[in-house]
Structures are given as C-alpha cells and as structure tokens.
Design a protein that fits this description.
The chain is built from nine helices and two strands; from the N terminus they run H-E-H-H-H-H-H-H-H-H-E. It is mainly alpha-helical. It has one domain: Fumarate Reductase Cytochrome B subunit. The chain has a two-stranded antiparallel sheet with strand order 1-2. It is elongated and about 65 Å long.
Length: 234
C-alpha cells in the first residue's frame, strides 16, 4: 500500500505508480449510504413541501403522506448519524478522510491548483494533473456545497421537526432557537428547501465531474469510491 509521499518519491526515481489506496472502507460505506439518504430526503422533502392531491376514499384507509413523512424523518436520522460518524472518521482516518473538512486557504500553491482545475473543467487546459485524493477544486466545492450545507440542513431540518415534537423535546432544546434566530418558521422552511435544491444541483455536477474525469483524466474516480484504490492510467 503506497502513500502519496511514497508515490511522489517513486516518480522522482523514474518508477511508474499505477494504483494507490485512498478511501478507507468507512468513508466508502458512508458515501453510498449518504447518497441514498440524500435521494430519499430530496424526493420526500419535495412532496412534503408540495403535497400530493387528496387521495380518494376514506382518510382512515390512506396514510400516503404519513409514509412520505416517515421516510423523510428516517432518512434524516441516517443522514445526521452518518455525518457525525464521518466527522469522527476525519479525526481517526487517513489524511484523505479530512479533505472535505479542512481547506488550506493560506496555501498559494493550493489556490493555483484550484484555478488550474477551473481551467481544466472549462476545457482551457489540454492535459489533466494527477491527484491522490480530491483535486483542489473538488475539495473546495465539497467543503462549501456539501460539508457546510449539510450542517445547515441538519440544523434547519431539526428546527422544523421541533415544531411538531413540541416544547421540551430534545429537538426543541437543541434546535428550537433556530426558528426565531432566522426570522420565523416560514423563513426556516424556505431556507431548508433552498438548501435541498442547492445540494441536489451540486450532486448533479458532482456526478458529471466524476464521470468526466473517469473518461478524460488519467486517474479513476467512480471505481475508487467502490474499491478504495485510485488507478492511474497511461
């Protein structure tokens, strides 16, 4: 198993490195469970905000919106527990596990790599660069459009949940302050819904970028999140 330092050292001595272990099993497992939870949250959240037409028949025989709300709340707990577990693994896992939580904002070379990647994605650069973990632009986007946004979605989501759970519930004790702080219940609902659209839009871009890099770049992305190994191509 090679580290990034080992790979760079090997390249300095003229040795070609074709694979390196990057993402540990907990990170990969979290990634796919989290992706599924996000899909469930987005679909059910949309219908909670824009309910389906009234169902035919007696109300006692229909519990469709109840099932939708239950699926949303269950996925929300999975998403939240997964996020807490992912934060924990950032401390105990390898250095790649910390990338989406820490940005080297004072590093000038890192910023130059960010702008290189911007040019690469705009088809202004002919040849891609090799990265062991996330490339700098992906790291920047993941931090703001997933990590920061995910924390905001958890806070606003449980604040909305606290209205139904009632005064004195743990949701109210931990997140009840959010509603008056952000200007009322409707404003929190709007921010939570806006966050969903931003996160889903980012997910589409994320999937596109991963497929594009697998095709055009010199390293694997999608298969790396399955096996953990980054494969470098000729």
């Amino acid at each position: 198993m090679l580290s990034q330092q080992d790979m760079l050292e090997a390249e300095r001595h003229g040795k070609q490195v074709r694979s390196i272990y990057v993402y540990e099993a907990p990170v990969r497992l979290w990634h796919w469970i989290n992706a599924l939870a996000m899909v469930v949250l987005a679909v059910t959240g949309y219908f909670i905000g824009t309910p389906l037409p009234t169902q035919p028949g007696e109300a006692a025989t229909t519990f469709l919106m109840g099932y939708i709300r239950f699926a949303h709340f269950a996925a929300a707990y999975i998403f939240t527990v997964g996020l807490l577990g992912r934060i924990y693994w950032a401390f105990v896992g390898n250095r790649h596990a910390r990338q989406i939580f820490m940005l080297p904002l004072t590093n000038k070379h890192w910023w130059s790599e960010v702008f290189f990647e911007v040019r690469w994605y705009l088809f202004l650069e002919k040849y891609p660069k090799k990265y062991v973990g996330h490339n700098p632009m992906a790291q920047l986007m993941m931090f703001f459009f997933f990590t920061v946004l995910a924390v905001g979605m958890v806070i606003t989501g449980f604040a909305i949940y606290s209205e139904g759970a009632g005064l004195g519930s743990w949701q109210d004790s931990l997140f009840g302050w959010v509603i008056p702080a952000l200007g009322g219940s409707m404003q929190v609902h709007n921010l939570h819904r806006l966050g969903m659209w931003i996160m889903m839009s980012f997910a589409v871009v994320h999937i596109y970028a991963a497929i594009r890099e697998d095709i055009m770049s010199r390293q694997s992305l999608i298969s790396t999140m399955i096996s953990g190994w980054r494969m470098f191509k000729d």
